[in-house]
Design brief:
With 139 residues, this protein is of the alpha/beta class. It contains seven helices and seven strands; from the N terminus they run αββαββααβαββαα. The chain has a single domain, classed as CBS-domain (Roll). Helix 5 runs parallel beside helix 7.
Length: 139
Amino acid sequence: MTRAREIMTPDPTCVRSSQTIRDAAQLMADKGVGALPICGEDNRLKGMVTDRDIVVKVLAEGNDPRSITAGELAQGEAVTIGADDEANDIMKTMAEHKVRRLPVIDGHDLVGIVSLADVARALPEPQVGDLVEALSVDT
């Protein structure tokens, strides 16, 4: 069975919890990604920030992205998967939590990100279709 470490994008770039949302947006643009893990000064995962978070929670509310930190958008504990978790566990976690990207943890270290696209490339079409449908349904 396919494991997270086999399909993940390794060595993700973190935005520090103390950096601004403007910094996070610039990192996303530089890296060509739509989400970044938020890491504390201790290098521990604090959450995730997405391009949608920036638009909905910062810009649409009239807030200045230069005055809000990434850490302020981190909400509770991040949903993660283990590096040795199997593809079925990845799909179940994504569907259950309605997320399209999952940080991959090995021990206490952030080692990668698994995205919906990574899963789609690695798994048979019927399973991927079920996952996309689960993520697309509004609750």
